[in-house]
Design a protein that fits this description.
It contains 19 helices and 30 strands. By secondary structure, the chain is an alpha/beta fold. The strands form nine sheets. A five-stranded mixed sheet has the order 1-30-29-27-28. A five-stranded parallel sheet has the order 6-7-10-11-12, with no helix packed on it. A five-stranded mixed sheet has the order 19-18-17-21-22, sandwiched between helices.
Length: 617
């Protein structure tokens, strides 16, 4: 085998003994608990009676079952318990170490717990309090007082993030007694792997009927909106005539069915990469869920490292929360901090279009055809919500060519503020001799506000309809007049190089562009399938589906010299996917979907990451 191998990184080996993550969508995961009585696939709704999960508090006199997930002894405490009480309980049940456990009673209980934590014992879980210490080395962490976290969005998100930041990525998180059919999506979205049917049972005895949009008192229902087996032969009136226990059993069956249906949908959305889009809609069912999503979005660094850099599906920006999505904020941040515009004296600001990429839209094509070769003397930037600004070179790059937004002609104050800030920061960092804005309506108002803050002139060339002949002629005339005062114009070949350099800088950071597309390089193939060649060797290919670059080994070596996006593996020669167990070190800036460089003393390879750098190690 050659020592140069093209490969990919993968995530199919778990670092704990029993839990394995197989699919991610942001903080949400699909995984499985292995080597139990039966494989428990997650996200999972547990039946605490029938599933292979045992609370050790209730089985002191039973033999240890090898094929069960056993929860270690715990003392239930409410959310608002004083911290000193947690300390006292910790002294009674000290689970500091994954191999020893001290209990106040050193008899049968202590011996039992030590057996559980023996290297040959089954998978173990530990109950943690939101305010308490978090021990290491467990397969499952159970959130104590999780039911108290409902209706407390700040505490809910703070607890999830604190727990996730302290435990290994391949440990499962279980939140008991909190899940319903209408908050299940939020729980899974936030990173919880296991929930249970406790609320389905308890609420059934309260005559609460689960729907997708909340629970309803049975006596308030005019008809049953469900056609599950428990509902199809009944009406609210007939159920109310049943004995309480019989009625509760039917309601529990219905409530469980609703939860199962929601879980199946959530799993499908995780596989599609659409859970966030769904969450922005269903969180409106309860105010605390909306608040939880908003609090979650404030934790950018936590979410960013769990969010892939590219997706195969559209990004639907349909709510105010869409502005806070990681994909939106990351794109805006990279445009400001990684992107370097081509050297031009003239900037042309254009409105976005419904069709993506913008250059394929009717409006942008008409403008391009009208300007012809004049475009080589200027730089084009598109103004848009929710991304802020999109340089023409990055119009293919995710999510610029992948987002969709309702077009109403009305911009919210948050949209205006965000776009104004993006344009203001860009123009402050990259001054131009002449700025021309071929825009109207809200776009013009945004440009006028930015011009006022910068105390400089922006030339407006459109009269309402940007595609009218008079507007296009006016635009062309001002560009020709501005070009007369500048000598900066480039060839078509140079424009292609600038595009590829911009994408490389966006993808890997400066100066990756000049390293990967050096002077003397040649761009082959038509847009959007450009290929970079240098010294008769191919270095990179533009992938039109994502607007990112796939590198050959020759190109990878040039970028890898910057010591970024590197994965160090153990001393072996890979023959395919590289599993997490073989990774020694990885750049913490690596995100799922990134092009990465894999090396040891024997091998140099290039591949695509299936998880973040932190999770690899």
């Amino acid at each position: 085998m050659s020592k140069d191998n093209s490969t990919t990184t993968d995530m199919n080996v778990s670092k704990t003994r029993y839990f394995e993550v197989t699919k991610r969508d942001g903080s949400a995961r699909i995984g499985k608990l292995r080597e139990l009585e039966k494989i428990v696939h997650t996200p999972r709704i547990i039946d605490v009676v029938r599933d292979p999960v045992i609370s050790s508090c209730s089985i002191w006199n039973e033999n240890i079952q090898r094929n069960n997930l056993t929860i270690l002894p715990y003392i239930p405490l409410p959310l608002d318990v004083p911290v000193e009480y947690i300390t006292i309980c910790k002294q009674l049940l000290d689970a500091k170490s994954p191999v020893t456990l001290r209990v106040a009673d050193q008899g049968e209980a202590s011996q039992y717990c030590k057996q559980l934590l023996d290297a040959k014992s089954p998978a173990t879980g530990v109950v943690i309090h939101p305010k308490g210490d978090i021990p290491e080395g467990f397969d499952v962490y159970v959130l104590g007082a999780s039911a108290d976290l409902a209706n407390n969005p700040r505490a809910f998100i703070a607890t999830i993030i604190r727990t996730r930041e302290h435990i290994t990525p391949d440990s499962a998180l279980y939140a008991p007694a909190i899940a319903t059919s209408y908050n299940l999506a939020l729980l899974i979205f936030s990173g919880i792997d296991i929930i249970d049917y406790t609320r389905a049972t308890i609420d059934a005895y309260k005559d609460l009927y689960f729907t997708k949009v909340g629970s309803r008192l049975l006596q308030n229902l005019k008809e049953l909106p469900c056609r599950c087996p428990a509902c199809c032969n009944h009406t609210p009136a007939s159920l109310l005539k049943l004995q309480r226990k019989e009625r509760a059993k039917l309601l529990e069956q219905h409530n469980r069915t609703m939860m199962n249906q929601e879980l199946a949908l959530v799993k499908q959305l995780i596989n599609e990469g659409h859970l966030r889009d769904y969450m922005e809609g269903v969180c409106r069912v309860e105010t605390w869920q909306t608040g939880a999503l908003q609090h979650f979005d404030l934790q950018y660094s936590y979410l960013e490292k769990r969010t892939p850099v590219v997706r195969r599906v559209p990004l639907y920006a349909c709510t105010a929360e869409s502005l806070n999505r990681v994909e939106v904020q990351r794109f805006a941040e990279r445009v400001q901090n990684r992107y370097t515009p081509p050297k031009r004296d003239i900037l042309l600001l254009l409105p976005c279009s419904a069709k993506k990429p913008y250059s394929a839209s009717m409006s942008h094509q008409r403008i391009s055809h009208h300007l012809g070769k004049l475009r080589r003397s200027l730089h084009e930037v598109i103004i848009t919500s929710p991304l802020g600004i999109v340089p023409r070179e990055l119009e293919l790059t995710y999510p610029a060519a992948h987002y969709d937004i309702p077009v109403t002609g009305h911009w919210s104050s948050d949209e205006r503020t965000f776009v104004e800030e993006c344009l203001l920061r860009y123009l402050t960092k990259h001054p131009y001799q002449t700025i021309i804005a071929h825009v109207s309506y809200a776009y013009r108002e945004i440009c006028e506000e930015v011009a006022s803050k910068l105390s400089r002139e922006i030339i407006f060339t459109a009269q309402d309809n940007i595609l009218s002949k008079s507007s296009l002629d006016n635009l062309k005339e001002h560009i020709q007049s501005s070009i007369a005062n500048t000598t900066r114009s480039v060839s078509a070949a140079d424009v292609k190089k600038e595009l590829m350099r911009a994408i490389a800088d966006y993808q890997f950071g400066e100066p990756a562009g000049i390293e990967l597309i050096p002077d003397g390089s040649i761009i082959k193939s038509h847009y959007p399938k450009h290929q970079v060649y240098y010294d008769n060797k191919q270095l990179a290919t533009l992938i039109p589906q994502y607007g990112t670059l796939a590198l050959t080994l020759h190109g990878a070596r040039r970028v890898a010299a910057l010591n970024r996006y590197t994965v160090i593996i153990d001393e072996f020669v890979p023959t395919g996917s590289i599993l997490a167990a073989g990774v020694i070190d990885a750049d913490k800036n690596i995100r799922e979907g990134d092009e990465v460089f894999v090396r040891n003393t024997q091998v140099f390879a290039v591949g695509r990451a299936q998880m973040s750098g932190e999770e690899m190690i």
